[in-house]
Structures are given as C-alpha cells and as structure tokens.
TrEMBL record:
PANTHER family: CALCIUM UP-REGULATED PROTEIN A-RELATED (PTHR31599), CALCIUM UP-REGULATED PROTEIN I-RELATED (PTHR31599:SF3). Transmembrane segments: none annotated. PROSITE patterns: RICIN_B_LECTIN (PS50231). Pfam families: Ricin_B_lectin. This is Ricin B lectin domain-containing protein. One of its GO terms (cellular component) is cytoplasm. GO terms for biological process: response to cation stress. Belongs to the cup family.
C-alpha cells in the first residue's frame, strides 16, 4: 500500500469557520474505539490521519488502526485493525463526501456537543449538492508551539493621552520597593516602562532588583493599589497575575482585575484592582510587541473552500483555472502556486484577469461563478500581502543578522579576544532578544512607530517559538554554547539561518490555510498594536535600530572571556588619573566612602579595554551600573581587592542568574572559611558574589535552588577550588557540576589572583530552558 497524503486533519464543513474534525475518542488506540467529530486540539495524534492508495484512513495513533464501521443501526465509525481487502475499511471521496466502498453510504455528522463530541454515522448520500454534515475536507495542519522564551515588552493600556499611548510605569521613575505603578505617556527610552511576563504569572520590571507587580495598600472591599515589590520566594499569589481573554489581568490572590483608577486617561493615574467591567477601557491591556501571529498560528486548520459540495461552484473553479492556464501564466491549480514567492508579482494580474477578462460559461449559474470569482480574488490579494510581508522580513533578516560577519569580526578585534583565550560562551537567543529590546527603545512610541516594532516582534517571536520547537539541524537552541572565538560566527550564522527557516515554515503554514491566511491579511491591513503592516521604508529603519542591540549582545559574549570587574573601597571619589573614564565607575556608599569599579584583563588589573570596545558595550545606551555589577546580560567575574598581603588567598565566586526565575544560592565550605554571604538570593538577570578564604587550599560547594521547584533539591551545583597561594596568585577551577529541571550552567570563567593585589575569581552563569534539547 502506498500512502499518498501526509498526516492531515479531516475538517467538517458543518461548523463553518471553526475547526472540528474526525477524532479518536479519548485517544484510545484500540480496535472498536469510536471515531467522532471533535474540536481541534492542537495537532494531537488522535485527530491526524492519512489515506493510503487503497482508501484506508489511517490513524496517527497506530498505523495498523484504520476507520471502519461497526454493526450498530445505523452503523457508526470506529477504529478497526487494518485488514487488506475488507471494503468496509475503504473509503473514496465523492463531491466532498467520504463514501464507504462496501456500503456506498457516507460519513454523516449527527448531534452532540463540544465536551463529548458528535457521533459519526453512515447514511445515504445527499443529492447533487452535498449537505454540510456530509461534507469533509482534508486540511493541512500546523501545531503552533508555546512561547519559548519570554521577552521584554511594554504593557499598553487601551486608554490613550491624546495621540500618545499610555503604558505601565513606575511613579516618578523610582525603583524603590513599594513604588506605586501608574500609567505614563510612552517613552521608548524609559526602561521603567519595560516588563517581562513569566509563565507562572509574575510581571517583572526591567529596572532595579527585578521588582514584581504586586498588590499594595488596601482600598477596602478586597481591592488594592498596585505597586512593585521584592519578589517573594517562593512566588506569592498576591504577586501573580493571570492573563484573561480580552486583555484583562486577574490577580491570583484576590480575583480582582488590574485597572486604571477612575478609568482616567491621564498620565500619572494609579493602577489599582477592581471588579471586572467589560465596558471599561482602563481594564484592557496589551503587550508591545503583541503575539498576534502566535495567536493566528494557534487556530485550528481551516482549508480553502474546495467548492466540491456545489457542482456549479466546482465547475466555476475548474473553468477559472483553465482560462488562466490558457493565458499562459501557469500550469495546473492556482492554489498550488500560493507558496511560490517567485510569482508574487503575478497575483495582482491574475486577480484582475479573474475580475475583468474571464467569462462565465453558459452551463454555470452566474451567482456561483461570482461567488468563486470573488473568493479567489480575495485569496490572491491575501497571498500577495503575506508573501510581501515575509519578503520584507527576509530582507531585514539578511541585513540585521545574516550579513553581520564584518561587524562581528570588528567587535572581536575591539575586544582583543583571540583563539588562544578562553572559549566564548552565550546563548544565540540572547542576541535576537537584544535586537528586539533595542528596537523597542528606538522606535517612536506613537503612531506608526508602535506598528513598526509590532510587526518585527511578531515575526521574530513566532519564528523563535517554531525554531526552538523544531528538531535536528533546523532547531534554534535555547541552551548555552561555548566555542573558540574563530568559530563564533559559524555558530551564530547557523542559528540565524534556522530563524529564517522557521519564519519560512510560518509563511508556508499561513499560505496553505485559509483561516490563517485571511486573519494575517486582516492584520496586515490594520493599524494599532496588532498591525502587521510593513511600509516600504521600514526595513532600513529597523536595520538601523537593530545594530546597537546586536552589538551589545555580541560584546556580552566576548568581553567576559578576557576581562573582569575589579573594585575597592576608597575615601574619595577620584578616578584613576590618565585612565579612560569609560572603564571605571565611582559609587558613593553613603558613609563617606566610595566604591571604585573598573574593568581590566583577568591577568592584569591595569590592562584596560580600548575605548572602541567600551563604546561598543554601551552602543545601546545601556546602564553603566548594570555593566559594572554584572546585571541584565553582563556576566563578568567580580574580583575582591583590599590591599592586603594575603588578598590572593581569597576566591571570589560570582553566580549570574540569566533566567526569569529567582534563585537561592547556598555556600558550604569544604575547605577554607566563608568571608561573605553564604545564602544569598539572586534575582532575575542579576548576579551575586560569594567569598572564600584559606591558607592551605580552598574548596567551596555551591548549590543553587529554585524555591518554586524545591527548597531541598538543588537545580544546579558545582565545587569551586583554588590552590595554595604563596607569593603569586594561585590557579582556580570548577568541577563536580550538576544541573537539572531545565537549568544549565555556562562554561565557568576561572581567573587567577595576584599576590597582594586581588583575589582569584570564578564566574558561572545559570541558564534556563524549560524544554531543553
């Protein structure tokens, strides 16, 4: 037997534009299990089928189970053990009906409900026009993956201030615990307006110690002001929010909804919780960029109208194809061209020819001809728009990602990194996220600027989700890598190509499904935060806005392999004389002393980066505080310096949390003494430093916990060691690494100390991928 179809979904016309189809009841892969009509469930094995050359409809649950009929009256469809030659298991497609070869009766949907499904019985076929409950159509399907990695976004209110969007912000820009959350005019450069929503329902602010949206003081009747607080460990229900359909956010603890107080479209208005009122715009919020494409890809299969249920409509479709072929533009079926991007320029011509040049045969009712004609014109317009959208993205991708080898090589030269140095570590997704983050800052906050970022964020985020869920060579890895600097571009470019492949798969999924195509076309024609409009001059604007984020993301990989952060306490705020101010930072301690931070080589504290490298690091106007404190993507080793003769007997161990989860670090001294915090909390995208001291050997057992998983079983651990230091810095290293529950450790950075100058330093980054490859 030869199978001539891929796994598909059998869609039933009776439900119109909704996706209902043949389904093995309760996924029981046994002969005798009833086959029913059931709502689309995302591409599960019990709803996918293929047909072989003998007419067997085979279940993906088991290739030896096919659809047959039972002995009830009337007969119902059930799974049967495949038996060659048994015509009760063989089916033909006639005018959109599935006809049993043995009985000549056809599958017919009956009564039912979504929770239990609808029975399918065998009945006599209808007349010349196939009735809806006997019409079936094979539909291509696409299983949209869940979001792979949360991204920083702006949370926009449905309220607006004049022509400016109102977005969630921290009052007066304060990052203090307890700060009231307000709505403000959108300012792309204001990082207190940027948030990340985690899968467990936390909404974290970008600035400060990753404070979380939470319930503040009581307003009475169970309602509250909304402020930001330190993340509870483990997560507290008052700090958890459930997104609800329609753009509402419901607090898990009280059940009340995030609201703009008084529904006032005024900058500075407080955020509170209140009862749900679906007529109030102040309770409706959306993320920028939105996930409109993700929603489109998640809808169930909806095939193009095949017109087979109506003989005149089908004849009209055939005639239109024949007349277009006679004009010499293509061969075969017009719909088979929809995924051919070489024909984009032809579609508007064909739509015009269908409207103006083709003639309705006298044997076909004019109203049926017009129905098919209008449908095909609409399809061609939608295909043109979608192909153009993805062509524009491909052009952007080539310039912003695939064509950046010269930029990467220039950054490597600026950083002074060579193949003789440590491996370069990182996560490719951080480069892509860094680009989106800086575009979010660069694009204006009102008018078409919002749309501009929306379309790019929509495509890239959906592409990431598809790529991360892929298998084999086309997979986008969410796991950390470590390579020699000479192989960095090879690693990056392969993953960038996979992103382009993923967006191509998305385009194909849209172009081969009428539901997805029509919804995407609507978004392309729309304005507002969900818009997929891509104006002719947008590509160059987006490429320009992407370069700073790309630059910083690459430097976040390169710089920690050669440089580390030194610091000491001093009694004044003087910088080093004759040293570039870019490589140093002074912070007041509030007691008359100051901490002086500077960046230099891991082997020489006076070997500073060149200014070109530092300008690269700050290309996106990112925070110097974050840079010198190893936060928000920077993962430097932090060194202990105190002018003591035995300073090289210290070992500084920095743990960087590059996840959206709050972690607890626990230090146990196997050999030596603890001279710092033995049980610090390290919040999302921040770092913490442990400090050990010894005279004759040092071993530090470091265990890392995610309290939302377990307070007794760690998600990662390692042991940090340092040899004896006599008159020179001693070697340090890491061993006995463990990792689980989706967490992984990056390649450790291990830098020896210097006698009488500074300690040894180790840096380890924690990554999280809930679906590791």
């Amino acid at each position: 037997m030869e199978r001539y179809e891929q796994w598909r979904f059998f869609w039933r016309l009776f439900f119109g534009d909704d996706s209902y189809g043949l389904n093995v009841k309760d996924s029981v892969a046994e002969a005798g299990t009833q086959v029913i009509v059931y709502p689309w469930s995302g591409g599960r094995e019990n709803e996918l089928w293929t047909i072989d050359s003998e007419g067997h409809i085979i279940s993906q649950l088991n290739d030896q189970l096919v659809i047959g009929i039972d002995t009830s009256d009337p007969p119902q469809t059930v799974l049967c053990q495949l038996s060659d030659g048994d015509q009760t298991q063989q089916w033909t497609i006639v005018n959109g009906m599935l006809q049993n070869v043995s009985t000549q009766t056809v599958m017919t949907g009956t009564s039912g409900q979504p929770s239990t499904g609808w029975d399918v019985v065998l009945d006599v076929p209808s007349g010349s026009v196939t009735v809806d409950n006997q019409y079936w159509q094979f539909a291509s399907y696409f299983s949209a993956p869940p979001a792979a990695v949360p991204q920083w976004t702006v949370i926009q209110s449905a309220l607006s201030s004049g022509n400016t969007s109102l977005v969630l912000d921290l009052q007066n820009g304060s990052t203090a615990v307890g700060t009231q959350v307000v709505v403000s005019d959108q300012d792309p450069e204001d990082t207190t307006q940027q948030w990340i929503s985690t899968p467990d329902g936390r909404i974290l602010n970008y600035r400060g110690n990753q404070l979380v949206l939470a319930l503040g003081d009581s307003l009475g009747d169970g309602k509250n002001y909304v402020n930001v607080q330190t993340q509870a460990v483990p997560a507290n229900s008052s700090q958890l929010w459930t997104p609800q359909p329609g753009g509402y956010y419901q607090n898990v603890n009280t059940g009340f909804y995030l609201s703009v107080a008084g529904n006032q479209p005024t900058p500075g208005s407080y955020l509170v919780t209140s009862d749900l009122d679906q007529g109030i715009s102040g309770q409706v919020f959306s993320s920028l960029p939105p996930n409109a494409l993700g929603s489109v890809l998640a809808v169930g299969p909806l095939p193009f109208p095949a017109f087979e249920a109506n003989s005149d409509q089908f004849a009209a479709y055939v005639s239109i194809n024949q007349q277009l072929v006679a004009l010499g533009d293509f061969l075969g079926d017009i719909r088979s061209t929809y995924t051919n991007t070489d024909l984009t320029s032809n579609y508007s011509l064909w739509a015009s020819q269908i409207q103006h040049d083709l003639t309705c045969p006298s044997t076909i009712a004019l109203h049926d001809w017009n129905f098919v004609s209008v449908q095909l014109q609409t399809e061609l317009q939608a295909v043109t728009a979608v192909q153009t959208l993805f062509t524009n993205y491909s052009s952007y991708h080539t310039q912003a990602f695939a064509g950046q080898i010269a930029l990467v090589n220039g950054l490597i030269a600026d950083a002074g990194v060579t193949n003789n140095g440590p491996d370069i570590g990182g996560v490719v997704l951080s480069v892509i996220s860094g680009v989106l983050y800086t575009v979010l800052e660069a694009i204006p906050g009102a008018g078409t600027g919002v749309n501009a970022f929306a379309v790019l964020g929509n495509i890239i985020q959906a592409g990431i989700n598809i790529g991360v869920a892929s298998e084999g060579a086309e997979k986008i890895s969410a796991d950390p890598f470590a390579v020699k600097v000479g192989d960095l571009w090879i690693t990056l470019s392969a993953q960038f190509n996979n992103l382009l492949t993923a967006t191509g798969a998305m385009e194909t999924a849209i172009l081969t499904d009428w539901g997805k195509l029509s919804q995407t076309f609507t978004l392309i024609k729309s304005s507002g935060p969900d818009s997929l409009a891509w104006s002719p001059d947008l590509t160059s604007q987006l490429v320009k806005a992407s370069v700073p984020g790309f630059t910083v993301s690459i430097m976040q990989m390169l710089m920690p392999s050669k440089y580390q952060i030194y610091s000491w306490i001093q009694s004044n705020d003087n910088e080093f004389s004759g040293v570039s101010p870019l490589v140093q930072r002074i912070e007041s301690n509030g007691d008359g002393t100051y901490t002086h931070y500077w960046i230099a080589s891991g082997s020489d504290w006076s070997d500073y980066p060149i200014d070109d490298a530092m300008n690269d690091c700050f290309a996106a106007d990112n925070s110097a505080y974050d840079f010198f404190h190893s936060a928000t993507g920077w993962t430097f080793a932090q060194v202990f310096s105190n002018y003591q003769p035995d300073v090289s007997n210290y070992l500084s161990v920095t743990v960087s949390n590059q996840t959206y989860n709050t972690l607890i670090v626990s230090l146990t001294m196997i050999e030596g003494q603890n001279r710092g915090n033995s049980n610090p909390t390290v919040y999302s995208y921040l770092s913490t430093t442990l400090l050990g001291y010894y005279y004759d050997g040092l071993s530090m057992q470091v265990e890392i916990y995610d309290p939302n998983i377990s307070s007794s079983s760690c998600i990662a651990s390692f042991v940090a060691h340092q040899h004896d230091s006599v008159f020179e810095g001693a070697d340090c290293w890491v061993d006995t690494e463990t990792q689980n529950s989706g967490y992984s450790l990056g390649t450790p950075i291990c830098n020896s100390g210097s006698y009488q100058d500074y300690s040894g330093a180790i840096q380890v980054t924690v990554f999280y991928n809930p679906s590791p490859s």
